[in-house]
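hey can u run this one w/ zinc ion bound, need the structure tokens asap thx
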Amino acid sequence: GPARPQAWRVNVVLSGLLEKCFPDEGRVCRLVGQERSLQRQQQPEAALLRCHQALDMAPGDISLLLLRAELYLTMKNYEQALQDASAICQNDPLLTKDSFFLLNQNPSEKSDVIRNTNCSVLYFILSLHQEADKAVLESILPIAPNTGLKRQFPNDLKDAHDVTDTPGKVPKKGQLFFEPVTTPCGHTFCLKCLERCLDHAPHCPLCKEKLSELLASRNFNITVLAEELIFRYLSDELSDRKRIYDEEMTELSNLTRDVPIFVCDMAFPTVPCPLHVFEPCYWLMIRRCMETGTKRFGMCLSAEHAGISEYCCMLEIKGVRTFPDGSSVGDAIGISRFRVLSLRHRDGYNTADIEYLEDEKAEGPECEELTALHDVVYQQSMSWFTSLPDNMREQILSHFGLMPDRGPELQSNPSGPTWSWSILAALPLERKAQLAILGMTSLKERLLAIRRILVIITHKMNSRQELVNSRERNN
Ligand SMILES: [Zn+2]
Ligand SMILES: [Zn+2]
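ok here u go:
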């Protein structure tokens, strides 16, 4: 018969639904299942009994006759086998054993069988997970008793998983499936609910089966049939669910209110920032940034009393790669500075209401003065950078990228010239000093601060060199 591959297992939600829609066929299907396992256990007589029972319920069913014919063959009862085989051919001379084998591959033939032999519906429908099977579905659904179906669906096509061990706000149990995916163990979840559960434990939330293979590929395909059933029979519930989803996406896209915050390291505007994300709450945060399309989050330092630093940098994700265990690495770049107004939590990570920082514009003679100061500090910075030992310079370059040029328009960027942030990131400074400069909205003040730091550092380097020189003289 058309043996299912070993790895191919039944979708629990869908098969439950179908058994309710087709109760008689369900009973037949169970008998067939028992027949197969009895045959595997070398109990042909008991298996034959199940065949008889199934055929009593669905007389003349081709797939059952075929099954019994095969069983007779293994029992070397050739006469009975031939009788069943000829009954099959009388019913449908075109449906030979060979074509029956093909049914698993060819959707159009699948739908033929379903139309002709009602009994096979349940058996074949369970394999319908592919986009190509949609047409087959069209031909099946009218057979289903419509009234019972509509009553039953809302209870079946809902989250049943328990995610109480997930920190933060738990996804609502009993919500209609949204983007349903089915695990290899046959359990169905909303894509996002499953991802969140898998962030914390690599097994099925319902049956606890290990899902290492699914995680290795992270290939969460939408279960087309379940989605189609929801679309057809629960369109009102679906549009409610979609509305909630859209509202959540809008909320998550807000870049001034409840902005996602990654408490990790110092970051500067225009400076590249490599990402290494090892904590599950931040895997969720990064996924959401990508899903909403903002790709942005705030990078902050932790502060003892306030929770996070007052001044932070908005980062934009340039690329991100997720590993089987859920951790991810990526590249981001500093976009702008902001001040934290208030701090909250969402699903295990911080969020903040923020106010963006922009430089005050200098005009007229002030602007000329600023340009002169800028050019001096730029030259000082570059000569400090080129005076560094090769290994230090290479380290800085590999971490922050090339040292930017002077740039065209001095005040075009509300965060100030790019090179000033690269120098600030490279200078051996304490976090506290870096934060103070990050919060300055006067370019003049920042340039003066950089100049002071350069003077101190150059002085230190020179005195160290003098010490070396005097030692050499004394030797
Ligand atoms: Zn869900
Ligand atoms: Zn499971």
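The chain has four domains: 12-130, 156-249, 255-357, 365-474. anyway lmk if its weird
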